[in-house]
Design goal:
- The complex is a heterotrimer of chains A (516), B (123) and C (449).
- Chain B has 4 helices and 9 strands, in the order βββαβββββααβα.
- In chain B, strand 6 and strand 7 (62-66) form a beta hairpin.
- The radius of gyration of chain B is 13 Å and the shape is globular.
- Chain B is 20% helix and 37% strand.
- Chain B has 123 residues and is of the alpha+beta class.
- The longest helix of chain B is centred in the last third of the chain and has 9 residues, at 114-122.
- A 6-stranded antiparallel beta sheet of chain B has the order 1-2-3-9-8-5. A 3-stranded antiparallel beta sheet of chain B has the order 4-6-7.
- Chain C is α/β, with parallel strands linked by helices.
- Chain C folds into 2 domains: 66-82 and 348-448, Alpha-Beta Complex (Aspartate Aminotransferase, domain 1), CATH 3.90.1150; 84-342, Aspartate Aminotransferase, domain 2 (3-Layer(aba) Sandwich), CATH 3.40.640.
- Chain C has a 7-stranded mixed beta sheet, sandwiched between helices. A 4-stranded antiparallel beta sheet of chain C has the order 10-11-13-12. Chain C has a two-stranded antiparallel sheet with strand order 8-9.
- The chains are: A alpha/beta (516), B alpha+beta (123), C alpha/beta (449).
- Chains A and C meet through helix 2, helix 3, helix 4, helix 5 and helix 6 of A and helix 1, helix 2, helix 3, helix 4 and helix 5 of C.
Chain lengths: 516, 123, 449
């Protein structure tokens, strides 16, 4: 007979003491490891990289040798791995759960795309190598261009913008160049921007030297057509419109809007942030658009990476294509060539947006995403994205208050009317979602709705996942209405940190570590 | 004898002869939330009524302050640079923003008194 | 389709719950004449992982990658060795698939690494503070010029000779929307004395690159003094940040704003992007309030525990809209992470050695090339990149060398336009270059001339 001779217990023996009351000696809490700043764990003499010897040479630094100590901390490789893995565990991520940030399109990031972006013919080629040696990379850019033009029906695409806002600026600079060529730069000063627009739209128009004129929304959450008619005139350079708009609604009057703007001699800039809702269902060309940026990190699933890098190619109509910035791609016999100098261009590029050719690493991922889906899959993406959003809208409407009546596109907008008189704010509600294991939705945007909650599930959530999410939100809404506010005002309590003092951060900014 | 006036942009003016001390109302400070920064006008600057001359910021908002009357800036409250919270603590006292001359007293006629402002903010 | 979890049963049940009969009912707001009935024209249908991989592998093989050739290109993008652990760490789901840290309680991983990054950048550049990164070095330079104009309330900007021509063009394009008075000085090897003559009391800033586009190191100190004497700011640009391990920092030499390309640390060539723009400045409230882009800042949570948040956001477009300091809405997140991890692995000791190694090997190659008939090294000083005058057309020589599998540098005319510096070749050397590479370059160059 084998005895349990070590005395090891095989069933719990505790008295049920509550985990949250335990203060640990190490500061860590089980799997959640305490981790100080790099500058507190590292040291200047530590190093995680082995390098060969420096050859004998006579220094040619022109007397500019560094004398000051830099103070950079170093880590050995095992220490570095721990530091960053521990920090990573303090992040929410798509791979962890539903990430319903409205207007951000947080969909699954296929790992195939990561693998392909690292192929040497894309990842290990220099932007200024002889063009004869980078035909594969140029060919990939040409294929990406073909897909983007096919999806949107547009005539040209500028690939170099480095993110959505950079793309907006590219598109509006094309508008500016066109107006300048018409000799109307001094008279066409106004750009119409809906109140519900992303902040980048007015910031972009201002950066191009235009004046911003806000367009109000009507009672259905769409552009107020009477206001538009009253504002349109020969001094309007362009309208910047997101479609579907930031309330998650398709602008039904979009053809009339584009006709009005075109008849007045202006241009139609479309913010393409929400392309995920309409791919394969309509082409922006057929909506009358002259320029639109495409956020590859939203619709085409290049990873968001904690805030970037993005990529913002801009598709252009034939009214604007000639103004696209350098560098751009042209056919060169059997292959491809880049036009890199304004002076050498046959067209009329407005200038150059950055040092090189755009976000190649993102181009590879986006094209891999598109080819994986194909024409049929891309349409299915939009259909499922819109279906998922409407399903959540239908389920959540039982307990939460939709901002507008009717169906939505790829995202569902709620206001805080359902929290009225509960003492719970949109912020509290969002923080309580964190305790439920969810990333909160976009809050307090768009600005046209009080206490806005904008929910975008994307097409990569299953029905089961949506149901669990809806169940949690419905339970929270019921709890708020029942008068139990402490669960909300104290939230989050189960995250690595409690609510942070943003006032203190802004009043006395500490933007770097300093010794002591 | 000084008189307090209010603008529809929620600024207060304490008018004493031909000069005024200006800040934002206690009501506005409450609505803004924690004030984290105030950008003040340069002393000696001549401004016209309606000019944007200062900015008050909370964590998530930035609001322009407009010159309530025309005149010249004679002082600005440098203490707010290091202690913006004064605006929340004492909006209509130590939290003043700047002082200015009043070039045209007739511009005061369109402003509200305490009672009218009370009605205005009730809406 | 492998990325779409819904099946037909799900779709039918969900449509029923919504209360519509078909998926097209959800798209009824699209004007009838703009609706697409069939599939998008001109595109294939979905493809398997294997098929996609095959296609991309074929495309990849159609380029000559730097790792497959003796490689000497620089000009604002440098091939350094990136430790394997960097790429592993940035691919962790929690970093890769997180969004901008808008909910700080569940984004401390991103926020703390950004705070550490900001500290490293400030230290490296010798400045007080740095932001959480911009798109790349060229756009960071353009943003720095805007920033200087707002701080000084002046409109004139002087671009010193030796600034990367693509950076100069990016700045010139970026200021088209406003009334800036741009003085772009003709290219020359070093910073020439005329720079100081171009400064006056209307000048907002002077933009000086060091090492400059020809690799020449520039003493910023006299330029900073001249700029400050007329109330202008000195913007220092660096496209090869590894140099800062060996060379005096811009902060030490009096720079007010530093704009730099951070690609060299942690990030591969990737045909020009994505890269990581660094922006650092003095600790002056007037400066900090004009910085574009994101800042991570330290604070505490409800229980007094240290934590980090995005801060000073009123500068940014989502709050300030048309009055924002910039329309930028991202930082270069993952590239920033790669930068900070690589620099943490190097530490001060490693960075100094890496820089010394780059410089030492560049000196060895410069001497070998200078000894060749028909080749003359033009630099007085350099870090890891230098310019040589070659007998003949540099662009043609580079093409000829490529034909024998040597990527021997960048003809200056590629950046300045044909007819400018036609006989100048720019050669960059890093720790990745072997002695065999040197031999191959010497042989190819001798053959091509």
């Amino acid at each position: 007979m084998a005895m349990n001779s070590t005395g090891r217990p095989t069933a719990p023996t505790g008295d049920g003491a509550r985990a949250e009351d335990l203060k640990t000696f190490s500061g860590s809490r089980g799997l959640m490891q305490q981790e100080p700043l790099l500058h507190e764990v590292g040291a200047p003499e530590k190093c995680g990289v082995d390098l060969p010897c420096v050859p004998k040479h006579t220094s040619r630094l022109g007397g500019l040798e560094r004398e000051e100590v830099i103070g950079l901390p170093g880590l050995s490789e095992p220490e570095a791995l721990r530091h960053y893995v521990r920090l990573s565990q303090r992040n929410y991520a798509i791979d962890l759960g539903l990430y319903p940030l409205g207007s951000c399109t947080m969909k699954h990031n296929p790992r195939l795309n990561e693998k392909l972006a690292r192929l040497p013919g894309f990842a290990d080629v220099h932007p200024l190598q002889p063009q004869s040696t980078v035909q594969g990379a140029l060919g990939l850019m040409a294929e990406l261009s073909h897909w983007l033009m096919a999806i949107t029906g547009m005539d040209a695409v500028a690939l170099s913008p480095k993110a959505g806002a950079h793309g907006e600026w590219c598109g509006m600079m094309c508008v500016r160049a066109a107006i300048e060529e018409r000799g109307e730069l001094d008279t066409r000063r106004r750009v119409l921007v809906p109140q519900s627009a992303h902040g980048t739209n007015p910031a972009t128009a201002a950066a191009c030297g235009f004046e911003i004129d806000e367009l109000p929304a009507d009672a259905t959450g769409r552009v107020d057509m009477d206001a538009l008619r009253s504002k349109i005139g020969p001094d309007v350079a362009a309208i910047m419109l997101t479609n579907p708009n930031t309330c998650g609604l398709f602008e039904r009057d979009i053809r009339e809007i584009s006709d009005l703007v075109h008849d007045a001699g202006g241009y139609f800039y479309c913010d393409g942030a929400n392309l995920n809702a309409i791919m394969g269902k309509t082409r922006v060309r057929d909506l009358g658009v002259d320029a639109m940026h495409i956020n590859l990190h939203k619709t085409f699933s290049t990873p968001h990476g904690g805030g970037g890098p993005g990529a913002g190619p801009v598709v252009l109509s034939d009214r604007l294509s000639t103004y696209a910035p350098v560098p751009y791609l042209v056919r060169d016999g059997e292959g491809w060539a880049l036009v890199e100098e304004v002076a050498q261009a046959k067209a009329k590029p407005f200038g150059r947006m950055s040092a090189f050719h755009g976000q190649m690493g993102m181009f590879v991922r986006a094209l891999a995403y598109m080819m994986s889906h194909g024409a049929d899959g891309l349409r299915q993406v939009s259909e499922d994205a819109v279906l998922n959003a409407n399903y959540l809208l239908a389920r959540l409407s039982d307990e939460m208050s939709p901002a507008y009546d009717g169906l939505c596109m790829h995202e569902a907008l709620f206001d805080d009317a359902f929290l009225k008189d509960t003492g719970v704010t949109t912020l509290d509600f969002a923080k309580a979602m964190i305790d439920e294991g969810y990333h909160p939705m976009t809050m307090y945007f768009p600005l046209v709705v009080h206490g806005a909650m904008l929910i975008e599930p994307t097409e990569t959530e299953s029905r089961e996942s949506l149901n669990r999410f809806a169940d949690s939100l419905i339970s929270l809404a019921k709890l708020a209405k029942s008068g139990d506010t402490s669960r909300f005002t104290n939230a989050p309590t189960l995250a690595p940190l409690r609510r942070l003092d943003e006032t203190r951060a802004a009043r006395t900014p500490v933007l770097r570590w300093r010794e002591g | 004898m000084s008189t307090i006036y209010y603008t529809e942009d929620h600024e207060w003016l304490n008018v004493d002869g031909d000069t005024a001390t200006i800040g934002i109302s206690t009501y506005a400070a409450g609505q803004l939330g924690d004030v984290v920064f105030v950008e003040l006008p340069e002393v000696g600057k001549t401004v016209k009524k309606g000019d944007e001359i200062a900015v008050v910021e909370s964590v998530k908002s930035a609001s322009e302050i407009y010159a309530p009357v025309s005149g010249e800036i004679t002082a600005s409250n440098a203490a707010l640079e290091d202690a913006p919270e004064t605006v929340n603590e004492d909006a209509q006292g130590a939290g003043w923003f700047f002082k200015m001359t009043i070039a045209d007293r007739s511009e005061l006629s369109g402003l509200m008194d305490e009672a009218a402002y009370g009605e205005f903010t009730k809406e | 389709m492998r990325y779409l979890p819904l099946n037909e049963d799900d779709r039918v049940a969900m449509l029923a719950r919504i209360g519509v009969s078909s998926i097209d009912d959800l798209f009824a707001d699209i004007p009838a004449r703009a609706r697409l009935d069939g599939l998008i024209e001109g595109l294939p249908t979905h493809a398997s992982e294997m098929a996609v991989e095959r296609h991309f592998t074929d495309l990849s093989r159609q380029s000559l990658s730097a790792g497959d050739a003796p490689f000497f290109c620089g000009g604002g993008a440098y091939r350094h060795h990136v430790p394997a652990s960097v790429d592993h760490l940035i691919q962790r789901s929690e970093f890769l698939t997180a969004y901008t840290p808008y909910q700080p309680e569940i984004a401390q991983g991103t926020l703390q690494t950004l705070f550490e990054f900001q500290t490293q950048v400030a230290q490296l550049t010798g400045m007080d503070v740095a932001n959480a990164s911009l798109y790349d070095g060229s756009t960071a330079t353009a943003e720095a010029v805007h920033m200087a104009a707002r701080i000084t309330r002046r409109r004139k900007c002087v671009l010193a000779p030796g600034l990367h021509p693509h950076y100069a063009q990016t700045v010139q394009t970026a200021v088209q929307g406003e009334t800036m008075d741009m003085h772009t000085m003709n290219a020359a090897m070093g910073a020439d004395a005329n720079v100081v003559d171009a400064l006056d009391d209307q000048t907002a800033c002077i933009v000086v690159q060091s090492p400059n586009i020809f690799g020449e190191l520039v003493d910023l100190e006299p330029l900073a003094e001249a700029a400050h004497a007329v109330g202008a700011l000195l913007i220092a640009v660096t496209t090869e940040v590894v140099a800062l391990g060996l060379v005096k920092s811009p902060g030490e030499m009096g720079a007010d704003i530093v704009a730099a390309e951070g690609q060299s640390i942690g990030n591969g060539l990737s045909f020009g992007g994505p890269y990581v723009g660094l922006l650092a400045c003095r600790n002056d409230r007037k400066f900090i309030r004009q910085v574009p882009g994101r800042f991570a800042g330290e604070t505490v949570d409800e229980e007094g525990q240290r934590g980090f948040v995005l801060t000073l956001s009123t500068r940014e477009q989502h709050i300030r809209r048309e009055k924002a300091t910039s329309n930028i809405c991202t930082n270069s997140g993952l590239c920033t992470l790669a930068f900070t991890i690589h620099l943490a692995l190097l530490g001060e000791k490693g960075l100094r050695k890496l820089a010394a190694l780059n410089h030492g090997r560049a000196c060895v190659l410069a001497d070998r090339l200078d000894a060749l008939d028909g080749v003359e090294v033009l630099n007085q000083s350099f870090f890891n990149e230098f310019a040589v005058r070659v007998r003949g057309n540099a662009a043609q020589i580079v093409e000829d060398m490529a034909k024998v599998g040597v990527l021997g540098g960048i003809p200056a005319a590629r950046l300045f336009g044909a007819g400018h510096f036609d006989d100048v070749l720019m050669v960059a050397v890093t720790e990745t270059n072997t002695d065999d590479d040197f031999d191959a370059l010497v042989a190819a160059l001798r053959e091509a001339i």
